[in-house]
Design brief:
heterodimer; A: 111 residues; mainly beta; 5-stranded antiparallel β-sheet; 11 strands; 0% helix; B: 113 residues; 7-stranded mixed β-sheet; globular
Chain lengths: 111, 113
Amino acid sequence: QKEVEQNSGPLSVPEGAIASLNCTYSDRGSQSFFWYRQYSGKSPELIMFIYSNGDKEDGRFTAQLNKASQYVSLLIRDSQPSDSATYLCAVNTGGGNKLTFGTGTQLKVEL
Amino acid sequence: DADVTQTPRNRITKTGKRIMLECSQTKGHDRMYWYRQDPGLGLQLIYYSFDVKDINKGEISDGYSVSRQAQAKFSLSLESAIPNQTALYFCATSGSGGTDTQYFGPGTRLTVL
């Protein structure tokens, strides 16, 4: 079992819709969780991080964490074509600032 | 200017050649990382360094070596490049003050013929 799992997609949503991206992780001791966006051929850029159970909102983005279910998600409201990218979930699975990345979910926002 | 820079940005080399990829950062971070990314495999950690004297192997260190010349510089070497090392390589940095957010450089696209 992979430590951090994501559906590779592609996930297609119409412009203006809510995109929901999901991630599960195996290490119950994980304390911090990150979402990165990566455009093709470019470097990952941080969207947001979450440490505590519940929701954390930043503009059109909401991260949701449920440690009991070992599940973290990212919601993108009012999706735009510029949101089309691969979204990487990363989890601190061993402490010491090492992150384990999922393989990413490709999001396509269609006009 | 970018906080994390990588040189070269693109490199084509031949099997058996030695190659060095360099990373510099102006973020003042202690911790630096090297990843490779292959299509469909996500980011895999090659080496990481928590300070100049602390260097650790990641999950795929075979065939690679690193040097931490200073707090701001972390180099990755391929002693004898092979075609399956063709990939996109990223350097990343993070602080040590309680946050573990990693910030990535622009990447180096390496092709080994």
